[in-house]
Amino acid sequence: MATDLYLISNIETRKEDVLDNKDIYLQKLKELKLEHTSNFRDGKYKQCEGDWEYEFPYTYDEVLDTIISDEDTTELIYYSSPFVFSIRVYENCLELTTIYKYRYLYEDEYKQLDIAKENLLEFRRNIFDIISIFGGTEIIYLADNACDKIATYLECWAWEGKSYDEIKQDMIAKNLPFRSDYENLKLNDLSYRNITEIIFDDFKDFKV
User: Fold this and answer.
1) Where are the alpha helices (DSSP H) in the chain?
2) Domains of the chain: which residue ranges?
3) How many Cβ atoms sit within 10 Å of the Cβ of residue 83?
4) How far apart are CA 157 and CA 6, in angstroms?
5) Which pLDDT score, from 0 to 100, does residue 1 have?
6) In terms of C-beta density within 10 A (0-12 exposed, 13-18 middle, 19 or more buried), how is residue 79 classed?
7) Given the DSSP bridges, would you call strands 178-179 and 44-47 parallel, antiparallel or unpaired?
8) What pTM value is reported for the model?
9) How many CA atoms lie within 13 A of 129 on its CB side?
10) Beta strand residue intervals within 93-203, DSSP E
11) CB neighbours (10 Å) of residue 114?
12) Per residue in 79-134, pLDDT tens?
């Protein structure tokens, strides 16, 4: 199952503030100078070009036969990039899409190697730097493609405008255990049909 890795963060903002600050956010994202991803094309890997860009939600109008601004969506703005992440901003939730699959968090074959630890640290640092631009302080990892429980929180909650806090509190009410011990996540314990834990990160090690 091709189940992509997403994450949401605890921001609180207003549409007006996002529109007023959209270029400030853009500049701060560019200042992070993240590493470009690469695609395999023409028989070799080529680095993706460009930088952060934003666009507003749009939809197709069948009557006018044209693309128009989507005034009904809860999404406020979308930041795309040639890096690992893209961003959707909602009034009370920030969503990051990644190029990875959800299993990335659980792949444990090389977890004890220094390079794997460094890669995870960089991954988390980049997330922390991004969410901090928008006022976020913690995250919850989610997934798509009918992944048990967490796909519903993504597709039926976050995408429908539910706040980060509403999602987190519902998880707590359902007694879903929260885990932050990346090093102990084992691939053999992961079942997309039966998610038994929520992977959470409050980045305490970056806040000291």
Assistant:
1) 15-31, 114-133, 150-152, 164-173
2) 4-206
3) 21
4) 13
5) 53
6) buried
7) unpaired
8) 0.93
9) 14
10) 94-101, 139-143, 178-179, 198-201
11) 8
12) 999 999 999 999 999 999 999 999 999 998 878 888 889 999 999 999 999 999 99
